[in-house]
Design brief:
The structure is a single chain. The chain has 13 helices and twelve strands. It has about 450 residues and is an alpha/beta fold. The longest helix is centred in the middle third of the chain and has 25 residues. The structure holds beta-D-fucopyranose (FCB).
Length: about 450
């Protein structure tokens, strides 16, 4: 791909990403809503209703995003609305999502639709969630129905959002539903997720070969806390293998790889992605610590003087560049399906935007075939266990008044989207120097 100095490729998609449960409000039929009712699960006792009332406000919300020069939008459909009971599909919910996708098309915005973004209908959760192998078949039935009904309105589809995060948060750390701490269960859940993806890919491609299907991978950079320490290097490499490479390799090879081979036996087609969806946020430094047995003996650290978000995630644009380069081996187009920062004061977001889009441009110039970028996210929303406290929005959204207020970053991002290039006059700050300290208690992921 040829890149004229500083410009992104022709036809580049620029947008923001959301997930149904985080913005819609009124999703009372899934495992997250049930989880939110239990004291101690969500910071400040927050609940996902009303979130941004986006279920009702989607048209004016899309007007606003279009006025900010976004030409694409990633969203998810809520399984529990569409299939409230096994095999029973709601024509009202389907009609709603047709309206949503049509509203994007009417505004000249390309939709990218995620079928599963963390939430399960209660009936799926009650039947054992992703630990139950049958959940894969049930997911495929849902995926088939949705793409049959909505496939004419969207070309790009994502089967699953961040399967490793689902397994890690729900089954290793136990901070998300179903709240387990059981490595065996985590591996079994991942196997079912992978089978669900494989089967959904095959089923949908048979019926709608024109659709482009992918999976949104959460990839983090793991570096050794002490570069000279062989134990740190070994543990950081193990983190990378388990967290970043397990799914990518399994998909590339069309079979499970270690450690999943210990939890099941499954295979799939060797082609099951038409593009790579990349969610990149941060890196972690890993220090060997005997006491961290359940986490592969790795203690997660931060560089001492690192710039960090409200959630204590390091700003590390170079990791974005490194990740994009590492994805060249997949030989598939890449869409950045999420990238963003929790920053209620908009203190660091402008710099985050500039340094990360710059890292992406460098990645493209070095041969990573990136075709679009979806910033996480447009509106402050229900940030899972962090509730409304973690503010990832380019636009502030008050869940009480529902007022939307542009942060300065929203205008900066609009300018990048409009020009399809980085602003000419920006000076990028030097990278901070590295020494390390333990990650703060706020760092929950
Ligand atoms: C990602 C999730 C998204 C949001 C961001 C901050 O892992 O996909 O829903 O929580 O993190």
């Amino acid at each position: 791909m040829s890149v004229d100095a500083g410009r992104f490729p022709e036809g580049f998609l620029w947008g923001t990403a959301t997930a149904a449960h985080q913005v819609e409000g009124g999703n009372h039929g899934n495992d997250w809503w049930a989880w939110e009712q239990v004291a101690g699960h969500i910071k400040n006792g927050d609940r996902s209703d009303p979130a941004c009332e986006h279920y009702e406000r989607f048209r004016t919300d899309f007007d606003l995003l279009r006025s900010l020069h976004q030409n694409a939008h990633r969203l998810s459909v809520e399984w529990s609305r569409i299939e409230p009971a096994p095999g029973e599909f709601s024509s009202t919910a389907i009609a709603h999502y047709r309206d949503v996708l049509q509203a994007l098309r009417d505004r000249g915005m390309e939709p990218v639709v995620t079928l599963h973004h963390f939430t399960n209908p209660n009936w799926i959760a009650e039947a054992g969630g992703w630990e139950n192998p049958q959940t894969a078949e049930r997911f495929v039935r849902f995926a088939q129905r949705v793409t049959d009904e909505l496939g004419d309105l969207s070309r790009y589809w994502i089967t699953l959002n961040e399967p490793t995060v689902v397994a890690y948060q729900g089954y290793v750390r136990g901070e998300w539903p179903p709240g387990k701490r059981d490595l065996g269960a985590a591996a079994r859940a991942l196997v079912t997720l992978l089978r669900g993806h494989w089967m959904a890919y095959e089923r949908i491609k048979q019926r709608h070969p024109e659709l482009r299907l992918g999976l949104a991978h959460h990839l983090r950079v793991f570096d050794p806390a002490r570069r000279w320490a062989p134990q740190d290097r070994a543990v950081a490499a193990a983190f990378d293998r388990v967290f970043n490479q397990t799914i990518l390799r399994s998909l590339r090879l069309g079979r499970l790889v270690f450690p999943l081979t210990r939890a099941g036996n499954a295979s799939g087609p060797t082609t099951s992605q038409d593009f790579i969806g990349l969610n990149y946020y941060t890196r972690e430094l890993i220090k060997f610590n005997r006491r961290y047995r359940a986490e592969l003996f790795g203690q997660r650290m931060l560089p001492a003087r690192a710039l960090r978000s409200d959630l204590s995630w390091e700003l590390y644009p170079d990791g974005f560049y490194r990740t994009l380069l590492s994805l060249r081996r997949e030989r598939l187009p890449i869409y950045v399906t999420e990238n963003g920062i929790a920053d209620g004061q908009d203190r660091l977001r402008p710099e985050f935007l500039l340094t990360h889009t710059n890292a992406m441009l460098r990645g493209i110039q070095a041969g990573a075939p990136v075709r679009g970028y979806f910033h996480w996210t447009c509106f402050d929303n229900f940030e899972w266990a962090e509730g409304y406290s973690a503010k990832f929005g380019l636009i502030a959204c008050d869940p009480v008044t529902q007022e939307r207020r542009l942060r300065p970053s929203a205008r900066l991002y609009a300018e990048i989207c409009r020009a399809n290039r980085l602003p000419a006059t920006v000076e990028l700050p030097p990278a901070p120097q590295q020494s390390v300290e333990p990650a703060g208690p706020a760092d929950r992921r």
